[in-house]
Each structure stands twice: as C-alpha cells, then as structure tokens.
Amino acid sequence: MARLEQMPEPMRSHIAKTKLPKFETQPWAAGPPLNGRRVAIVSTAGLHQRHDRPFTFEPGDSYRVIAGDCQANDLIMSHVSTNFDRSGFQQDWNLVFPLDRLQEIRDEGHIGSVAQFHYSFMGATDPKDMEPSVRKLAGLLQKDNVNAVLLVPV
To answer: Is residue 28 included in any domain, yes or no?
Structure first.
C-alpha cells in the first residue's frame, strides 16, 4: 500500500487537499437480513476482464463490468497510477476482488446469493466526476436484483 509520506510531489499535495463531496440525499436503506441479500462487488482497483479495454483518463470512462463467473487469470489490473502497487493482486486477486470469499460465504449460508455482475472503478478519479457513472451503475445493480454491495476501496 502506498503511504502518503512516500509519494512524490505534486501527487502528495493533491491527495492531501482532496475533499470528499457532500450529497443532499441519504444513501442508506433498510433491507432483508444478510442471509437473504444478493451481493455484488464494487472495487476501485481499475480491474477489467482480459477481453475488455484498459482504463483511460477519458471523461466517462470510469468503470468496467466483470462477469460473476470470471476466473482469476482472466482479470487484469490496468490502474493508471504509477504509484499503484499491484503485487498483492498478482499473489491473490481476492485482495482487490474477493469473489472467491463472497462465494464461500454464500455457500456457508451467510448471504443469499452472489450477483451475476460485479464492477470495478478506476480509483484515481475525482469522486465528483463519478456521480453520473454511479447513478448508471445503480440501475444495473437494480436490474441484477442486488440489494447489498461489498465495497472494496483500493
């Protein structure tokens, strides 16, 4: 994991002064017990499947859809930050995309089901610029009957 004090300038100053946006709405909602929930993964590791295009810094290019039957050797990390440490992902994809763990807790009966699709954002994006994409993603999650999301910030 990169530490702020080890990052070069101007990145260190940019990250230190970044403020999270405030939204007028309250995103929290009640739902069924955990063992009745359908769970999707949302990661910020810049992941995509091998056949998909890598991330770019173009506006609107903020996330990729990852199939629920994806295998570890089919997932690529194309995070654009040069300071991004990929070594953990190379050893165990569950560090940034814990699909195996999610399936295990489903099999143990702790959650109801695992979503058909999961999502990975390019984490090096200003949160204010992500809102249109997040709203679109919310609709995709609803279509997949997802009522819980495992957020994996990387």
So the answer is: no
Question: Is it the case that residue 40 has pLDDT exceeding 80?
Answer: yes
More confident residue, 81 or 11: 11
Determine, yes or no, domain membership for 26. no
Q: Is the pLDDT of residue 29 over 80?
A: no
Query: Three-state SS string across the chain, please?
Result: CCCHHHCCCCHHHHHHHCCCCCCCCCCCCCCCCHHHCEEEEEECECEEECCCCCCCCCCCCCEEEEECCCCHHHEEECCCCCCCCCHHHHHCHHHCCCHHHHHHHHHCCCCCEECCEEEEEECCCCHHHHHHHHHHHHHHHHHCCCCEEEEECC
Q: Is residue 14 one of the residues assigned to a domain?
A: no
Q: How many domains does the chain have?
A: 1
Range scoring the smallest mean pLDDT among 30-39, 65-74, 124-133, 141-150? 124-133
Query: For residue 44, is it within any domain?
Result: yes
